[in-house]
Every structure is written in structure tokens, then in C-alpha cells.
Amino acid sequence: MHGLINTAIQAFVTSTYGTERWKDVMEHAGLGFTEFEAMLIYPDEQSAKVLVALENVLGRPLADTLEDMGTFLVSNPKAEALRRLLRFGGVTYVEFLHSLDDLPDRARLAVSDLHLPGLELVEQAPGQFDLYCQEGLAGYANVMMGILRAMADDYGDLVILDHAGQREDADVISISLVETQFAEGRVFDLGGRAR
């Protein structure tokens, strides 16, 4: 697994639960180190051990923790680069949703050896969507739930998200757009600099 993914997990845990908790996770995983390097590739087995350790050490369902991590990745000021990558998808939340099919390719433009599973958005009715998250990365759909929720807040829209199970070898997230411009969204300047 790409080091960027592992360092994202590390950043989330240290920011949310503290450095000592992260050390506990890594000790429980038994990898023999406590820090990931963003530009290295790690064996999938190591990342899987970290996820199991994360669930055990935090004592909460992994799905919930990964959803919180997705929210963290968009809302934390230190992760502004990801938010910018996502906001380039559209001026509105619906445009952003339609841009998700291209997200793995856009991520690869930024980091050539980062391979994210495919995403496919299907519009069921006006304001009703299903997002198919292809297999290939454990917990991907859970992280995407957090990202979708945080991006709705970022645009100021009110949405209802539901993990709708699996179809066609993909995790499906049901998205219902309840109200656009429900609240004031965060400011986004297309020409702004990443920090």
C-alpha cells in the first residue's frame, strides 16, 4: 500500500487520539517501527495489521474510525491539498459527485504511483445517487463516506448517506441530496495556493 495512505492513517490517529495512542497501535501491529514514510510502498499485509490494531486499540468499529478519518482528511487544515484536489471537481456538490469517476486518475496525476480503486457514480433520480466503490483497498468505502459527508459540509449542502451494501463486486454508498445551500459553505479560491 502506498505510504501516503499509511501516513494519512498515522496523521489522523496522532491528531485525534495523540502520539502515544499511535505508538500503541503500531506496537500492537508488531511491525517493528512507528513511523510511515509518505513516498514508500508498503506490503498490504503491514497495512492490514495496522487496521486490525487500530480497531483493537481504539476499541471501536473500524468502519466508524475510517469514516472519521475521511472527514478528517477534508476538514483538517493540514490536509488542504486533498480538499483542493476534491474541490477542483466542481462548483457545486452535484458537480463534485459527478467528478468522482475521475478521482483515481486525478490522484495519479498528483502522485504517479498512487493507485486508488475505481469509483462510479450512478444517478438514480434527481438528487439521488449511488456511488460504487470498487474493491482493492480495505475500508475504502468507509473513508469515502467521511469524505462525502465533509465535502457536503464544505459546499454547504445537506445530504443523507447510507452504506447500501455490495453490488457488482463494489461497496455502494447511497447519497440523497436533501437541500443545496443549506448552510454557508467554506470559502474556496480556485487560484489559491496550497499550504
UniProtKB/TrEMBL annotation:
Pfam families: HNOB. Residues 2-156 form the Heme NO-binding domain. It comes from the Bacteria. GO terms for molecular function: heme binding. InterPro entries: H-NOX_domain_sf, Heme_NO-bd, NO_sig/Golgi_transp_ligand-bd. SUPFAM superfamilies: Ligand-binding domain in the NO signalling and Golgi transport. This is Haem-NO-binding. It comes from Epibacterium ulvae.
